[in-house]
Amino acid sequence: MQWTLVIPLKPLARAKSRLADTASDGVRPGLVLAFAQDTVAAALDCPAVADVAVITDDPLAGRELATLGARIVPDSPGMGLNAALAHGEAVVRSLRPRTPVAALNADLPALRPLELSRVLDAAAEFSRAFLADAAALGTTLLAAAPDHALRPAFGTDSRARHRASGATELGITGVDSVRQDVDTGDDLRAALELGVGRYTAAVSTGLLIPEP
Length: 212
Known about the structure:
Number of domains: 1
Largest sheet: 7 strands, mixed
Distance between the termini: 41 Å
Structural class: alpha/beta
CATH architecture: Alpha-Beta Complex
Number of helices: 8
Radius of gyration: 16 Å
Strand content: 15-25%
């Protein structure tokens, strides 16, 4: 099964405020872009992925991610993460009505294509499925089969919210790179230990990441 991924990305200047203790206002937008570049590059290298659509209004991010091969969809609702994902899903399914769709976080700088493929293969067994993040509170991937809506419920405690919505939680192990999103300095340290992609590696060189 070949999937279309929908990846939402805030304007770079407003993203990842919780990384303020690790990256200054002047550095943080470039770091956020690097996370997204490594996420998109790995997703496009995944054998289970046919297409990647990034939902963003940030002109720099749009240009850079389009260069990698992503389809850029403007966030015309402008009403937050879940609205952006629903809009992206509608756009890609207007082009490919029978495609299975998965929402993927843009902050997975250690993402491994083969681990992502394992997650998507597992998700293909269900009408809707999700993968919890490394903290076991949020969600890094939400998948929907053809003829089923994503019904995204990202945000605080999204793991519980997606479970309550009827989506199946994937218990697959050995896919740490798909779970390790980055919101804090501790998260970035964990991603660096897993091994990040070349964009994040370049931007994070020299950052003083606070010890826990």
